[in-house]
Each structure stands twice: as C-alpha cells, then as structure tokens.
Amino acid sequence: MKIIIIGSVASGTSVAAKARRNTESAEITLYDKDTDISYAVCGIPYAIGGEIGDFDELTPRDARWFKKRYNVDIHTSHEVLDINHSTKSLKVKNLLTGEIFDDSYDILVFATGATYHRPEVFQGKSFDNVFQVRNINSGKNIKSFLDDKKPKTAIVVGAGYIGLEVAEQLKERGLDVTVLQRGKHPMAHLDWDMSIRIEDEMEKQNVHFLSEEIVTETRGEQTLKSVITSKGNVLSADLYILATGVRPNTQLAESIGVKLGETGAIATDTTMETNIEGVYAVGDVAESFHVITGKATYRPLASTANKMGRIAGDAMTGGPLRFQGVLGTGILRFFDLTIAQTGLTEKEAIEEGYEIAVLFNIKPDKPDYMHGKEMVIKAVADKLSHRILGVQIIGPQGVDKRIDVFASTITLGVTAEDLFHMDLAYAPPFSTTKDPVAYTGMALTNALTTAPLITPHDLMELQKNSADITIIDTRAKASYEKKHIPNAINIPLAELREKSSILDKDKLTIVYCNKGVTGNASQNVLRNEGFREVYNLSGGNKNYQEIAKQEKN
C-alpha cells in the first residue's frame, strides 16, 4: 500500500505518524510546497513579538527526524501540480530545482490547509510593508521588518484570533496599533454582549479600534503609505497586517471530483474519507460537523486538524477511530484577558430553534484573599432538556480551566443540574468552595425551574416598548444612588419583605443587585410572597451597565 499525503503541518504529519504506527508495510510519502513541516502555526505571533525567543522553537521536527522516527519520506519545497485519479498518478515539481516528476498512490490524502484571504483592494498588489501571518517564513519576514525598519505605527486589518494576537504583540513591542474590523465588534463568533468586553481591554491598553470599517483604497507603490476606509478615513502606518480570515484550499481536490460540503470545505465521512474511495481530506481543508446540532461546520483550528489526521491515518490502516465532531472550542489571550468559547452561542442556539435560558455568571476564579479576579461566564441552556448548549468566558485568569470543563461536559451532553453535582477540585489557591462551573449549574437550574432570569438586552427591549413593569434595585442606597437602571426603585433586600405589600403582585417584576446573587434571594422572597411573575436580572447591574454603555454607542 502506497500512501501519498499532500500537505503537512498539524494534519498531514499526523496522518503519516498514525498510519506508520499501525503498519510497517505501507510506503508513506508526504509532499509540501512550504519549507517547514509540523510547525506550531499558533505560536507565530508570539515569535514575532519576541515572547518566543527563536522561530526554531516552533519547528522542532524536520523531514530527517520523520524519516528516522517513522520511516516517512517527506519532501518540502515540492508542489503537486496535477493529479490523474483514473491512473492514481500525480505530477510533482521540485521548487528548488524546477524538476517535474511523476509519482503514484493507492491512498491519497489532501492536507492542503487553507488559503489566507486577501481583501479585494489588496489583490494583485505587493507592498514591502504589508504582511499576512501564514507560515514560519511569513513570521520571520514580519520579525525582520520590525527589527530592521523599527516601525512606530501599525494597522491590523481583522479582529479575530490572529488579528488580536498580533495586535497584542505589536503593542508590547511599543508600536501604536490600530485595529480595523468589518463587523461591529471584535471576535465575531462570540455573542456581542461578550465581545464588547474585549473593546474595554483595547481601550485600557490604548489599542485603537475602528468597527464596521474596511479598507477601500490604497495609496503607495512599493511601500503602502496610507489607506482610505469605507467611512472615508485616511489612515497611515509604517506596518500593515492583514488578518482577514482563511478559506479551505480545495482547488487541487476539486480537480479530481472531490465534493465540497455546504461550508465550502471538503465533505468527508467519519473516517475522513471523501466521496472518492481511497481519497481522504484532513485539517483546514476539511469540513467538520457540530457535536450538538450534527450539522456541517467549518472551524479551522490546529487541535481539530491534528485529531482529523490521526483518525484518517488510523482508519485507512484498519483502525477503529472515527471523527465525532467539534464544539468549536477556542481560546485567546489578549493582554490581561483570556477569551474562550465552546458550543453554541446564544445567537446560534436561537437560529437552531432552541428555546433557551441565558445566564451571566460573574464570579472570581478563587477567593479574594487569594487574589481572585472576576470572570464573566455566559452560559446557554436548552429549556426543554436542560442540556448545556454553549459557554463563553472572559476574564483575567482561571478561564482556561473552566472552559475545558465546560467543553468536556457539553460533549457528554450534561444538564445544568449535572454541573452542580460535579465533584470538582477545591483549595483556595485554585478555586472557590463553590466553583464557578458548579455555580453556573446551580444558577441555571434555578433559572430553568423556579427562578427565571432576564438578560439586560431583553430588559432594555421592555423599557424601549414602555412595558408596564416594576424594576427593583435590591442593593444598599449608596450603591443605588451611584448608578442604577432607569426607572428602578430602591428596596434593599433587608427591607423587601416588609415593603413588598405596597407593590403590585400581578405586575411583571424584575429584581437586580450588583452581580446576581442578592437578586436571586430577592426573587425568592417575592415569589414566596405571592408575586405572579418575578425575574432576576442576569449578571445584575454590573452586566447591565456594561451592555447599556455599548447600546448607546
């Protein structure tokens, strides 16, 4: 059996390694037109900024290592030009010598990754100060530009993972950084009421953020001097980074009749085999499916690519591994924030037809006396089954631990009730006695059963429509006077039982405190006093004011 793999990095080399572990009889060859293999793409921004000392740390394994370890022939700087699947042959060009030769296969694997989207205004143009973060060489070129040219200003186009990571690293190197984003908020795959918190961090770090603004015109010849945006702004910088997303690199696969899925990436079965027998697709060129919905999705991440490669290498050599889908779990550090997400967002859950409960849980990662810092956890659950559908977390510390717990539990289909009963580790240096994960489960269980929540956005909609409601601020008078929700009356929790008799029990009532806990206690008091419909404001006044601030902008 002869296996040809086109492309390396996370998925292609994983195919080769797993196939070799399963059999010594296969002949395995890998072609890649790049100069490096199996490198840590996600580490490139940190090598650009100098947090990683040397790019060599991102390329610990080369072709010689793979040959010695796995007896796999890896040819870098080799491009596959053409494939004839009827004869199972291909033409390959050695990019260093120009030689073109033929090869053949029994099994073919496309690990061709993704192409980096270049905005239309930049297409066909080449500037010596415009870069994209694509591979090790592109990272080295940016680093050399920073070291040699000493730029003072930078414009980053795009506010996704790469855009924010590069913006952080450039700012750490002392550059004045501006970020442009097509959408209204950064990290468009998050719900907007979470991504606005990234904008707060940008303001804190003095990173300029221009939303709903794209480059429409460039000025300059060899060097890009300035750009004109869709809002008519003229912006100039010494350095420009394009971080405008990727597209699956499917052209070669399509040439032999491989079918694409609805996302535009290659459709496969659970063994990663395409519609053509003996032809597989893995990594950023391949389509995934969502664990919760079962529907096709495209979330190109290194962790998924590695997993796909291992599964394909196992399946093609008779192993039992099968792809089980993704939740789209991702995490990002941006200055003092960690930003993480798994499963469905509120928007996605609604689009999928779920009737949902939404919780904003604002809790420290550990006790105050151990220097705990607050995280904002947004959790979405299905009202019918109580299954957790998705979680987003933003905070300075402790986020990574919690998002992985949520990803694990969502994969297993747990309910809100299950979260509370999980036996999680506790000691003051690591957590609170009631871990934020457990508290999320407890609060969601209340919301799904006896103590419903209302989100700030839904409350704002009621206010805009002049709904006949009672809003009660249950905090101390001093907190109320400092900042409160419009039209709210102040009745502290300690006075609520006594004063509840003067309120209309049949009117829709909304209670709130600073972050939600006292609001829940107040909600229980009013429910027990016979109030017909009482909601607790999720995330309290703190969350409401954060979201209201953005609503006004």
In helices, the fraction of residues equals 25-40%
Percent strand? 25-35%
What name does the CATH topology of the largest domain carry? FAD/NAD(P)-binding domain
Sheet with most strands: 5 strands, parallel
Q: Give the distance, in angstroms, between the N- and C-terminal Cα atoms.
A: 62 Å
Give me the count of strands.
30
> Tally the helices: what do you get?
17
Shape: globular
Instruction: Return Rg in Å.
Output: 27 Å
Model regions low in confidence, pLDDT < 50 over at least 5 residues: none
Mean pLDDT comes to 95
State the secondary-structure class.
Answer: alpha/beta
Give the class-level CATH name of the largest domain. Answer: Alpha Beta
User: Could you give the order of strands across the largest sheet?
Assistant: 3-2-1-7-18
Can you tell me the number of structural domains? 4
Indicate the CATH architecture of the largest domain: 3-Layer(bba) Sandwich
CATH superfamily of the largest domain: FAD/NAD(P)-binding domain
